[in-house]
Amino acid sequence: MKFIQKIGLVIFILALAGFSLLPFYGSYQLEKELVISETKDIHQEAMVDILQPMYGKVYTSNIKFIADFNRYFDGYNDELKSAEEWDKVIWDDYTFSLTKASATGPVSESPSLFLAVTILLGAFGALLYILPLYRNQPNGIKNDGIYHSSMKSRGLLGMITGSWLLLFYIVLYWFPAYLTNLVLMVDPLSMALSGNPASQWFLYGLIYTLAILVMGIRMFRKYRGNNYQTIRTASVMFFQLAFAFMLPEILVLFNMPWHDFKNIWPLDYSFFYDYRLEGMLGSGALGMFMLVWGIILIVVGVPLFTYFYGKRWYCSWVCGCGGLAETLGDPYRQLSDKSLKSWKIERYLIHGVLVFAVVMTAVTLANYFMEFELLGYATNELHTVYGFLIGSAFAGVIGTGFYPLMGNRVWCRFGCPLAAYLGLVQRFKSRFRITTNGGQCISCGNCSTYCEMGIDVRWYAQRGQNIVRSSCVGCGVCSAVCPRGVLKLENAGEEGRINDMPIIIGNKSISIKS
Amino acid sequence: MTGHSTKSKSKHFVIIGNGIAGVTCARHLRKADQTCQITIISGESKHFFSRTALMYIYMGHMKYEHTKPYEDWFWEKNRIALKQAWVSQVDTDKKTLIFSDDSTFDYDVLIIASGSKPNKFGWKGENLQGVQGLYSIQDLELMEKNSQAVKRAVVVGGGLIGIEMAEMFSSRKIPVTFLVREKNFWDTILPEDEAKLINRHIKEHHIDLRLETELDEILDDGTGRVKAIKTKSGDLIDCQFVGLTVGVRPNVDFLKESKIQINRGVVIDACFKTNMEDVYAIGDCAEFQEAPAADRKNIEQVWYTGRMHGETLAYNLSNSKKVPYQPGIWFNSAKFFDIEYQTYGFVPPIWGEEIESFYWEDSKGKIAIRILYQKSNQAIIGVNAFGWRLRHEYFDSAIEKGYHLEKVLGELGQASFNPEFYKSLHKEVLKQYNQENKRSIQIKKQSFLQKLIGSRA
Q1: Binary contact (A509, B312; C-beta < 8 A)
Q2: Which CATH superfamily is domain B331-453 in?
Q3: How far is Cα B322 from Cα B325, in angstroms, rounded to an integer?
């Protein structure tokens, strides 16, 4: 390792440590005025009262602050609940907003400084490490030592990384109040983009986007000379930065609903939720465009593009989840399970989630058109369950936290309902396939090993068969790592797409008809 | 399906060797006949693995289990019994195998697919510690053990395994000196331009490539380990590892006391039959009495031929109508560090007067294509490609049907198998051809729509 890379690594680790410890830094002080400004009118009176004992008290850590807050707040609600006075219970969660408002100390005083020494410095360190990679080496496959690496082969470093990611996602989804310091430091950036203070989701979006950009540059280094990989990576970097991160914030700046134009139902499972529909319908021509565009993508875009190019047009060129998997997740692609058993589990799970998403959306829409008369309760329950199980636990915690354990496409492979939909089209009506080059396969196994979707590519290639699988996201890495030039991602006629060759090219002894 | 089974229900096929030839034969036997008994015997490993992938285990690209083309349940599901044992003798009178532990095993039909073993030429010091070939899993394990604390490795022999070994060490940043007896790397197979292209690439990877250099002896450090080698020109090279990769020969020593006829390999006819009833041989260990075709050798030691032998023998064993082995257009491939090589048809290192050649190399000297064609009618007979993937199907029929050179040159776009978005080399090739021959072949233009939907034609 070059000296400059070592420096970069040290900087990155220090910045990461700073990022991880920062939430526990600083002090918190709640005042009545804060409660008034952060709570809804209907709750103001009660909240001011509930939190009375906390006013003026200086908490030296967010843990103590949140513990006290929960004690008073839950005490109030529990009493009402046991008295079955359901309409007086406060269902809104003010933990995050009030913790954030109460924060005092260096981070709230100079947020930009802390942003610079954690997230930005981390990105800088990572780039110092990444940019000199493979310098002065000829273009080619750079997989040396992957299975000797603790980070990339489920060693201790991989386990630590996975645990960190799991913890981060759990806190982000269910205990965001503990992240207030981190959110505070991105406030100025959020104000500049959307005119609003940051939420934990803005923080997440920023880290997510930076991860894709920085690790995307790593992809450029690693696959230098492979134009397919370079262009595809540039594409996911662009869509994440422009469509998922910048544009939605700018929309908010113009008082439009936060909207990601490239996100498609049912991955975007809340697209037909009443608040989303009302948001779009209440935002004039642009809002109407959001709605129509979203529906066109579902009804026309997915089948049409998938017919011509396979599901890769979305999964490995546009999608945000795919974007993270293909960049941050690339070092872990070889960890996906290739067994027939896992393929069976995959088919049950992913199509199960698709059915769940469709049913939930159908109930939601029925409820919407019936003007919330019959199905209100069922809809809410379904939303809660789906949001918790699929939206947060599966897509986030397992989907990313398990990168170092089960590979980078756990969510895309086992859970994403949009991938299931795209996959059905790809399997049954598409021009896309991975063509096997006659009899050139030597069964070495590089293709299967590096398939992030756990497809046993070799199973087909060694039989001279083309690979037509619903799960293939068309990342093109099987083709890249093949040492004998056997695999090629192609869009071509449907004829001969699925082929069976009992005797592979090159043997004239047996005529197949005999 | 596949004609009439001539075999009685409980016939027991026993295959010695679980490489590509033996396993392909077993799979096709099972496909054709659901009732026969099949056993594969190997001492090297319980399960079939891809020998060509051994290097990737050492380099950390894969683990051993990734090199197994079938999951472990596959064998039981297809009722192919696996036995891990070394066969030491074959008694064809009693139709029995004798294992190294003296236990025995009966067969009805014996298929020998025992592969190859590395050549040794009786060099002084060739049995020292740290000196080895590379063929089996055990060789790989030994190599792993032997490469601890190696400051320099010497690889002797400029062929496919030699360059793989050089790449393996190079992946672990162990300096390599590569001794090649010939004028250029692998020039017994490759024409000079191609061999030189690979010479340059080997050096680009900082390998100390020594052409026209032969090993004289290997020197002992006094403890039975290698400490250096001496070349025939008298150079001393300090090293802690010597890889002997000077070709392979059929692994048939265990048959020497049997009645099965052995020459260099197990002698077989065109239907893989040996001189003994119910004994067949396929793959690397088999030696045809007569070469299968004019451009083929009596011993074929390639992955693909092993597979074809297996396919064909299985067909013969499960059909009343026997077919002789009849290979189609030759093809092969390899990868030299980062440069992939594919060949189709007949491209010898030197060719006669009746043949002409067109050769193109890119300006950086890392991509090349050579097409050989008949002088008389310009029908192509073979193609070599470096750093350029070609479509097997296209060249299989182009060579078989003897396409005109200019037809092939005009169709190189569709004949290319390079990944999407790769720079098209077609124009540059045509430019050179047109200049050299005062011709004006053009690329058939694709419409924007054809390009957009990725039409192949």
Answers
A1: yes
A2: FAD/NAD-linked reductase, C-terminal dimerisation domain (3.30.390.30)
A3: 10
| CATH number assigned to the domain covering B12-117+249-317 | 3.50.50.60
Given the cut 0.90, state whether the ipTM is greater than it: yes
Q: Note whether B50 contacts A443, CB cutoff 8 Å.
A: yes
Q: Cα separations (Å) of B282 from A23, A440, A505, B100, B308?
A: 68, 19, 19, 22, 9
Per residue in B409-420, pLDDT (tens digit) is: 999 999 999 999
> pLDDT over 70 for what percent of chain A?
99
Q: What are the pLDDT digits (tens) for A38-75?
A: 999 999 999 999 999 999 999 999 999 999 999 999 99
Percent over 90 (pLDDT), chain A: 90
> CB–CB of A449 and B61 under 8 A?
yes
d(CA B50, CA B303): 10
B136 to chain A nearest CA, in Å?
A: 15
Which run of H or of E encompasses B242? strand B241-244
The token duo for A101 is 């408002």
Read off the pLDDT band of A97 (50, 70, 90). very high
Both structure tokens of A40: 């809804």
Q: How far apart are CA B42 and CA A7, in angstroms?
A: 51
Contacts of A464 (CB under 8 A, 6+ apart): A436, A438, A439, A441, A499, A501, A504, A505
Q: How far apart are CA B16 and CA B13, in angstroms?
A: 10
> How far apart (Å, rounded) are the C-alpha atoms in residues B26 and B8?
17
Q: What residue spans define the domains of chain B?
A: 12-117+249-317, 131-246, 331-453
Q: Give which of A435, A444, A448, A504 to mutate to test B binding, by max B Cβ within 10 Å.
A: A444
How much of chain B is helix, strand and coil, in % rounded to 5? 25, 25, 45
Closest-CA distance of chain A to residue B45, Å: 16
The answer to whether domain B131-246 has CATH 3.50.50.60 is yes
- The string of pLDDT tens digits covering residues A322-335 is 999 999 999 999 99
Indicate the pLDDT class of residue B9, thresholds 50, 70 and 90: low
Give yes or no on whether B131-246 and B331-453 have one common fold.
Answer: no
* pLDDT score for B48: 98
How far is it, in rounded angstroms, from Cα B79 to Cα B361? 51
Contact B406, B439 (CB under 8 A): yes
Interatomic CA distance for residues A66 and A177, integer angstroms? 8
Reported as a single tens digit per residue, the pLDDT across A183-214 is 999 999 999 999 999 999 999 999 999 999 99
Average pLDDT of the segment spanning A240-261: 96
Nearest residue of B to residue A147, measured between CA atoms: B60
Q: List pLDDT tens digits, range A284-299.
A: 999 999 999 999 999 9
- Among A508, A511, A513, the strongest candidate for a mutation testing the B interface, having the largest count of B CBs within 10 A, is A508
Mean pLDDT, range B2-13, rounded to an integer: 62
Q: Using CA of residue A13, residue A19, residue A20, residue A25, what is the dihedral sign?
A: positive
Interchain pair A509, B324: CB under 8 A: yes
Asked if B323's CB is within 8 angstroms of A340's CB, the reply is no
By Cβ distance, the residue of B3, B328, B337 closest to A506 is: B328
Contact B328 A507 (CB under 8 A): yes
Q: Contacts of residue B163 in chain A, CB cutoff 8 Å?
A: none
Using a CB-CB cut-off of 8 Å, the residues of chain A touching B50 are: 442-445
Lowest-confidence region among A16-20, A146-150, A245-249, A372-376: A372-376
Residue type, B261: Q
Higher pLDDT, B369 or B448: B369
Q: Do A484 and B335 make contact, defined as CB atoms within 8 angstroms?
A: yes
Bond from prior residue into A266 cis (ω within 30 degrees of 0)? yes
